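On clarity, I found the account of how folds are encoded harder to follow than it need be. What matters is that the chain and its backbone geometry are given together, residue for residue. The format is easy to grasp once an entry is in front of the reader. For illustration, here is how one protein appears when written out as sequence plus structure tokens.
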Amino acid sequence: MSDGETQKVDLTKATLGPPPAQIKQFDFLIGSWEATTKSYLPDGSLQGEHRGRLTAEYRNGGRMIIDDFVRLSPEGEEISYAATMRTFCEETGMWEMSFLFSLRQEHTSSFRGRFIDGEGHFDAVIALTPESSARAKVRFFDIKQSSFEWSMEHSPDGGESWFVGERISAKRAA
């Protein structure tokens, strides 16, 4: 094969094989969680706080993880729903994650990243409206069997400045 040629793969003979070992990096997420979400304005002031529920499970023979996050009103009514699909790409050595809110414009094409020293670090561009987007960094940290912390930083100016837009503290549901 010469440079620039693409190797053709016969998908009728391809097998999925076992999940990659890295899939275990998200083992902590599997199960049900109670969460507190805090949203912040660019100046650091608290914009709002909500309770929520997160449920994560393996799919595709353990090769993918899907989680559902429901944000609740103070009365316990569902006010927001988001889903994330996660898989580890062996070709790039990175996690690939797609995230989508129901009934909202905000979405990402893909978060990408790695676990470094026990923390998950992932980057994306979030489409906030059809005309505007922001860079984002997600971090999973302080990961324990019964709890974890999550934060998302935003940069509305292409990475010149960053602010914590949201934080989640999660505790395993009983």
